[in-house]
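Course assignment 3, question 2. Fill in each field.
Student: A.L.
Task: Predict the tertiary structure for the chain below.
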Amino acid sequence: MAKLNVGDAAPAFSLRDPAGAWVKRSDFKGRKLLVYFYPKAGTSG
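Answer field:
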């Protein structure tokens, strides 16, 4: 996978929200979207 730089568009993705519904990046077209990644729970990250 190519490295993303600040300002790059995020690649297409889909994931489940806390309620189990599928969410796609394209659902937010035309809106700002913050994607936050964090280390696995219980680590020193």
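Instructor remarks: The beta strands are 14-16, 22-24. Residues 14 and 27 are 10 Å apart (CA to CA).
Grade: pending
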